[in-house]
Design goal:
By secondary structure, the chain is of the alpha+beta class. It is about 45% helix and about 15% strand. The chain has a three-stranded antiparallel beta sheet with strand order 3-5-4. It has a two-stranded antiparallel sheet with strand order 1-2. The relative contact order is 0.14.
Length: about 100
Amino acid sequence: MRQASHACGKQCKKFEKMCLHDDRALCKALRMQSSGELVLVTAEAAEILGVDRATVVRWAEKGKLAPIRKLPGRNGDYLFSRDEVVRRKAHEELIRKAG
C-alpha cells in the first residue's frame, strides 16, 4: 500500500491514493479517528456536556473547550477530542459542586 504525504509532512496510512488534506488539524483528526481515539462534532459534545449546541460553540470560540478544528462553512461543526469533552464535563461538575 502506497502512503500519501500530507502538507503537514505526515504519512497517511489510511488512504491508498494521494491525500488532499492541506490542514494539520484535519490530518490530526483523521489520525485520531484511525488510531481509535474518538472525534466528536459539536452536537455530540453538547449532548455529553448536557448543554445546548450554541453553548459548545461559544466555549470553543472563547477557548474554554479546545476544538481540533472547525469544519468549513459558516455553520461548519467543530471537531473535538472525546477526551477533551470528558475533561470539560468533569470540570463543570466540580464547579457545580463547589458553588
